[in-house]
Amino acid sequence: xxxxLEDIAARALGAEDRGKVADYIPELAKVDPNQLGISxxxxxGELFSAGNAQTPFSIQSISKVFVLALALGQVGEALWKRVxxxxxxxxxxxxxxxxxxxxxxxxxxxNAGALVTTDTFLGSASPREALGALIRFIRAASDQEDIxxxxxxxxSELETAHRNFALAHYMRSYGNLQNSPDLVLGTxxxxxxxxxxxxxxxxxxxxxxxxxxxxxxxxxxxxxxINALMMTCGHYDGSGDFAFRVGxxxxxxxxxxxxxxxxxRGSVAVWSPGLNGYGNSKLGTEAMEVFARxxxxxxxx
Length: 301
Ligand code: GLU
Prior knowledge:
InterPro entries: Beta-lactam/transpept-like, Glutaminase. Keywords: Acetylation, Hydrolase. GO terms for molecular function: glutaminase activity. The protein is 44% helix and 12% strand. By secondary structure, it is of the alpha+beta class. It folds into two domains: 2-59 and 196-295, 3-Layer(aba) Sandwich (Beta-lactamase), CATH 3.40.710.10; 61-192, Beta-lactamase (3-Layer(aba) Sandwich). Helix 1 (2-13) runs antiparallel to helix 12 and helix 7 (162-173) packs across helix 8.
């Protein structure tokens, strides 16, 4: 495993086309694209890493996985009245389907759906309380204390979050947002600005493994469902492509991170800031493709 990860990291750093770093959030545009880290936390508790696996990065939409788990913990199946479970086939911040589908977003991993899960998780708590609970959940899942929110990134996103505000107001007009768009967006931008290293993220992902050694923070049924949604919706309109190339549930973020779950085997985190046309890490996706092929880890046997 160690040799494989080092080989993947070395190969990626030699790549000519590294994709394009997200620049619509000004603070993210400053990140050096010449980085790739990869970590594997196995089901039985081993940790392997290579490349820039100890460098903290902005987890962005990977936070949607943790918030979904918490929102389901709060309201259970009632969540599905407010958000669907179908791939959208649209970009992460698209507003297109919301009008046709009367303010009910397609799934919890596109931005509109994530705003609903954040609103649900927020409930009647303050953003500070909700974010505190989220950080505690991630620290418990990873057994790592040193996980924080980068306030500069949160502020930078909040100042430029015009599309996300549009989505929130639109859903609020349909009664599908309980809190004000200001409160929801304030919480959402801070959850996206959580920083983690590949090692911390791979360890945190173990809460979605179906083995007895994994942290038991959600029920087995819920783990299966979250994994199913990651498989079908975790990479926006590139979800089918990721499933085809990697064959494992994954969730990407525009910070360049991807969390991948190999049921029964382990949790993998890869990070490289340059994105492909879908807004998913370019080298990260390629690294995962090689990883899955070489290890044979797949949900398809
Ligand atoms: N904070 C980002 C946004 O809402 C998350 C998108 C992503 O990571 O894919 O625009």
